[in-house]
């Protein structure tokens, strides 16, 4: 899952981003609304964690732009304004969820994951295919009852392939959705991750390489 965190309090932003990365998410961070609009125009995010009171461009305007521009990204507002009227207005301008500061980090993670599942088409909380079972919430992957020891990136790639439901996913799409902005598009990162994932999944093989196109389950 790829997340954009928009928060003008730099220390808080970096702390939250580090925590989300430990949960296996690919996270980009910006500190103002203008940068948020630039990033969302250039990248395909699953979830945007959006502070409401931002410099340059207010969070409300960022939210309206995403909702009105057809962005697939789900928006969770993360703000100190926690009154019912604030929540109502935030949801009214296009936010999908609203979490007031201070917040429990575990709750933020749960809400981000829930929004990430609300893609088109919507995904179930547990992904399954021919003996393979992946639970993104618990970060558990099993095959035929055997728990798989996957790295965060291996887990992310497997989740993306299962979510595609048999469709081909290109290496570029895997890199875009599974890694953050610092990933080098010219490396063999995806190919190496797929190779390691195949070894851990075992036989019979589940991941098919589609020449000149990508990979699929």
From TrEMBL:
Residue ranges of domain Response regulatory in the record: 2-116
Residue numbers carrying 4-aspartylphosphate: 51
Domain OmpR/PhoB-type: 124-217
Record bears the keyword Nucleus: no
Gene3D superfamilies given in the database record: 3.40.50.2300, 6.10.250.690, Winged helix-like DNA-binding domain superfamily/Winged helix DNA-binding domain (1.10.10.10)
DNA-binding region (UniProt annotation): 124-217
A Pfam entry, by short name: Trans_reg_C
Keyword Transferase listed: no
Top-rank taxon, per record: Bacteria
UniProt keyword list: DNA-binding, Phosphoprotein
Name by which UniProt lists this protein: Response regulator transcription factor
Organism: Nonomuraea typhae
């Amino acid at each position: 899952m790829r997340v954009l965190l928009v928060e003008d309090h730099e220390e808080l932003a970096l702390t939250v981003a580090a925590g989300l990365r430990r949960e296996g998410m690919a996270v980009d961070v910006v500190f103002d609304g203008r940068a948020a609009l630039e990033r969302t125009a250039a990248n395909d995010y699953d979830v945007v964690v959006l502070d409401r009171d931002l410099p340059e461009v207010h969070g409300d305007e960022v939210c309206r732009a995403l909702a009105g521009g057809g962005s697939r990204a789900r928006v969770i507002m993360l703000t100190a304004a926690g009154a019912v009227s604030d929540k109502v207005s935030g949801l009214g301008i296009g936010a999908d969820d609203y979490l007031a500061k201070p917040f429990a980090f575990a709750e933020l993670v749960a809400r981000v994951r829930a929004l990430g599942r609300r893609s088109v088409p919507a995904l179930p909380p547990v992904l399954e295919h021919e003996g393979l079972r992946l639970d993104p919430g618990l970060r558990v992957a099993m095959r035929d009852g055997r728990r798989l020891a996957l790295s965060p990136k291996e887990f992310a790639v497997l989740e993306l392939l299962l979510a595609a439901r048999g469709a081909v996913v290109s290496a570029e799409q895997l890199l875009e959705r599974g890694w953050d902005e610092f990933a080098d598009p010219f490396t063999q990162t995806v190919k190496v991750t797929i190779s390691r994932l195949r070894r851990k999944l075992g036989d019979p093989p589940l991941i098919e390489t589609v020449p000149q196109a990508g990979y699929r389950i």
